[in-house]
């Protein structure tokens, strides 16, 4: 099946499912916010793997699973995590690639292009869940070698700036983003820990990220160094443990807050679509990834704020508690006016696996 057919088939399925979601609007009525989130995580387990949501995305997404693995471990879900990793590895090995997504029918594919963060998130999930990866080591080493050759500029150690790679903000086109390079830094660190093939060992990624992306007050979104603040660029260097400087963390958090990315609750990618280049498909989901509020980043940002301002973190956490209990669900994305994101082509997914991250706040 060609990429175009994948996009048509998957796009149609997601469109149809999102409209059913708009009509049904399932609510998890039992208990408080934490109980609702635990119920959602239970329902995201389909007997074979953790799917990304109970509605629009009943499939495996490498990134989304990786974002939740540590919290799922806190919820004592190790066996199910290992089943999920085995499922994904079996599909990836069959098709000889590690991708952003596996369709509900089990076919790996990338949207919209190969992503820099797929391999790092998969390796991360293995490490934090203590997955016995030894029998897969040869495949993983082959994928690491391919990743390095495809994605990394050997001279700088950074993601190639003139190639379009998918990432967390997958509707945008960025040139070697701070987020992507933070994921490479994570991969380099975890390859060393796991004694996997490590072509990254000659690079000092914390220094590289500071040198190429730190403005003095916040991290630039990508190597273009445009003067706007991006939520993911200023969250993940710290959340992934790449940058540990406390003063830098405080400054980045202030930049996020001063730019309005945490209002009315965290976290937005940017406060507008200005200066951001989007892929053509974004016309069908306009502002889905500009000033919309994303629930996969929000709890991770709250955890960051907990390290420097417990009182402010509690305010953010209470806002999340109120949202979950109001909607009796954990939704995917909101508009800047606090409404579930919707347009004629799409309605926000619900029952997100990301609910696991709320339970670990």
Tell me about this structure.
By secondary structure, the protein is mainly alpha-helical. It has one domain (3-359): Glycosyltransferase, CATH 1.50.10.10. It is built from 13 helices and nine strands. The protein has helices spanning 3-24, 33-44, 62-74, 78-95, 118-128, 137-151, 178-194, 205-213, 231-239, 246-258, 298-306, 310-327, 355-359, and strands at 60-61, 101-102, 108-109, 172-173, 277-278, 293-294, 333-334, 342-343, 346-347. The strands form four sheets. Strands 1-2-3 form a three-stranded antiparallel β-sheet. Helix 2 crosses helix 12, helix 3 (62-74) runs parallel beside helix 5 (118-128) and helix 9 packs antiparallel against helix 10 (246-258). The N and C termini lie far apart (42 Å). The mean pLDDT is 94.
Assembly type: single chain
- Say how many strands there are: 9
What does the main sheet amount to? 3 strands, antiparallel
The tally of domains stands at 1
- Through-space gap between termini: 42 Å
Secondary-structure blueprint:
Layout: H1 3-24, H2 33-44, E1 60-61, H3 62-74, H4 78-95, E2 101-102, E3 108-109, H5 118-128, H6 137-151, E4 172-173, H7 178-194, H8 205-213, H9 231-239, H10 246-258, E5 277-278, E6 293-294, H11 298-306, H12 310-327, E7 333-334, E8 342-343, E9 346-347, H13 355-359
Antiparallel strand pairs: 1-2, 2-3, 4-5, 6-7, 8-9
Helix pairs in contact: 2-12, 3-5, 5-7, 7-8, 7-9, 9-10, 11-12
């Amino acid at each position: 099946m060609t990429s175009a057919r994948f996009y048509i088939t998957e796009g149609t399925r997601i469109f149809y499912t999102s409209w059913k979601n708009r009509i049904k609007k399932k609510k998890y009525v039992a208990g408080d916010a934490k109980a609702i989130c635990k119920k959602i995580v239970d329902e995201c387990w389909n007997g074979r793997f953790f799917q990304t949501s109970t509605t629009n995305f009943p499939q495996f997404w490498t990134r989304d699973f990786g974002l939740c693995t540590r919290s799922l471990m806190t919820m004592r879900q190790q066996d199910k995590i290992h089943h999920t990793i085995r499922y994904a590895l079996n599909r990836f090995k069959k098709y000889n690639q590690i991708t952003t997504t596996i369709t509900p029918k089990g076919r790996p594919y990338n949207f919209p292009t190969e992503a820099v963060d797929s391999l790092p998130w998969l390796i991360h999930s293995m490490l934090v869940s203590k997955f016995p990866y030894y029998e897969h080591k040869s495949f993983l080493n082959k994928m690491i070698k391919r990743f390095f050759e495809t994605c990394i500029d050997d001279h700088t150690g950074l993601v190639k700036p003139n190639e379009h790679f998918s990432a967390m903000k997958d509707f945008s086109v960025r040139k070697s983003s701070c987020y992507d390079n933070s994921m490479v830094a994570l991969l380099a660190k975890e390859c060393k820990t796991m004694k996997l093939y490590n072509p990254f060992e000659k690079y000092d990624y914390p220094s590289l990220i500071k040198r190429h992306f730190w403005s003095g007050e916040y991290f630039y979104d990508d190597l273009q160094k445009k003067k706007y603040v991006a939520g993911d660029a200023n969250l993940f260097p710290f959340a992934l443990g790449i940058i540990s400087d406390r003063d830098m963390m405080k400054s980045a958090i202030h930049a996020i807050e001063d730019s309005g990315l945490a209002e009315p609750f965290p976290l937005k990618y940017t406060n507008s679509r200005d200066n951001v280049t989007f892929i053509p498909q974004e016309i069908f989901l306009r502002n889905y990834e500009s000033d919309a509020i994303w629930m996969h980043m929000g709890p991770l940002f709250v955890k960051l704020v907990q390290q420097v301002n417990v009182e402010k973190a509690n305010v953010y956490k209470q806002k999340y508690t109120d949202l979950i209990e109001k909607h009796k669900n954990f939704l995917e994305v909101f508009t800047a006016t606090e409404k579930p994101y919707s347009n004629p082509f799409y309605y926000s997914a619900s029952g997100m696996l990301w609910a696991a991250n709320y339970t670990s706040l």
